[in-house]
Specification:
The protein has one domain: Alpha-Beta Plaits (2-Layer Sandwich), CATH 3.30.70.141. About 30% of the residues lie in helices and about 20% in strands. The chain has seven helices and six strands, in the order E-H-H-E-H-H-E-H-H-E-E-E-H. The structure holds uridine-5'-diphosphate (UDP) and magnesium ion.
């Protein structure tokens, strides 16, 4: 099986309910390697681009409000964005996450244990996990620059690392 990268987002319900550590722990236990992480304030444009394939679904407007924290009183629209890497990482992450509808998800999965269907019919399911190879590639690029990913483009060129950097104007390092 190929080494893959996949995008995980701790959605506002997961963040607000203190499930960030649990999600990271479960993905660790599954043998996945964390190669990128950052808090992101989700703009409307980013939310709509991320979920662009669902734009014609009736739940789309509320999905955009959900991922931007509007249902969970998040002042800064923040989510934790993560990239995991490993053999078959996309399917493995989906398995740990569980099915989209928390009521149909394996009760031992994260969504099956902690997700809920709201009275409005919205699935609040704790985390996002890329659905397939094409989505994973597009989503990792959408949320992260190459230099933010371990093993991606180096932050500084190898010959410009600390030891190789030329002294500043005052001659000191
Ligand atoms: N969603 C929903 N109702 C639905 C289908 C999806 O509220 O009938 C939400 C849910 O939060 C889901 C997200 O929209 O995680 C994206 O849907 P998708 O079908 O891509 O599911 P996922 O890939 O997240 O399992
Ligand atoms: Mg999906």
């Amino acid at each position: 099986m190929a080494i893959e990268k996949t995008l995980v987002l701790i959605k506002p319900d997961g963040f607000k309910r203190g499930l960030t550590g649990l999600v990271i722990d479960r993905l660790d236990q599954a043998g996945l390697e964390l190669v990128a992480a950052k808090m992101v304030s989700v703009t409307e444009a980013l939310a709509k681009e991320h979920y662009r394939e669902l734009a014609d679904k009736p739940f789309f407007p509320n999905l955009i409000r959900y991922i931007r924290g509007e249902f969970h009183s998040l002042a800064h629209q923040q989510v934790l964005a993560l990239v995991y890497q490993g053999e078959g990482a996309i399917a493995l992450t989906r398995k740990v996450a569980g099915a989209t509808n928390p009521e149909q998800a394996d009760p031992h999965s994260i969504r099956g244990s902690f997700g809920r269907v709201t009275t409005q019919g919205q699935f609040e399911n704790v985390l996002h996990a890329s659905g397939n190879a094409a989505d994973a590639e597009r989503e990792v690029k959408l949320w992260f620059k190459p230099e933010e990913i371990i093993g991606g483009a180096p932050a500084v060129a190898p010959n410009e690392g600390l030891s190789g950097r030329s002294p500043g104007a005052n001659g000191k390092r």
